[in-house]
Specification:
By secondary structure, this protein is mainly beta. Helix content is 8%, strand content 44%. Strands 1, 3, 5, 6, 8, 9 and 10 form a 7-stranded mixed β-sheet that branches. The longest helix is centred in the N-terminal third of the chain and has 10 residues, at 16-25.
Length: 127
Amino acid sequence: MPKINKYVDISEVEREAKKDLIDRHSPFIHCADTAVAGEPFEVTVKMGNEYSHPDDYDHFIESVTLFNGETKLAEAVYVPGALGNTKAHNTTTFTIIPTGKKLNLVAHGYCTKHGIWEGTAVEVTVN
């Protein structure tokens, strides 16, 4: 099992370099608080909140994966240069069809140089 790095609130981190490393590698989930069962529901995952990630041929975000708890819902895979070889926020929007009473959404981002990073879980009520 590969090591999974987890997001920590960067306001509690002292060194700017450490804030940069943590933030730009962490996936942040953006979606509505409620969803309708059986209806399409959009979930956007943005890599980095304040800091953007490089898109170099030897250092880039290779994939973004969305989970409901431990169940994999969707994955997007990228090739180097997909963001124009500039420092940018990799933003991926997934459309899922929710079931059950709630979603416990978790995202992973995979950096080719710094491994797997997990963001903060987001709970969505399903009506």
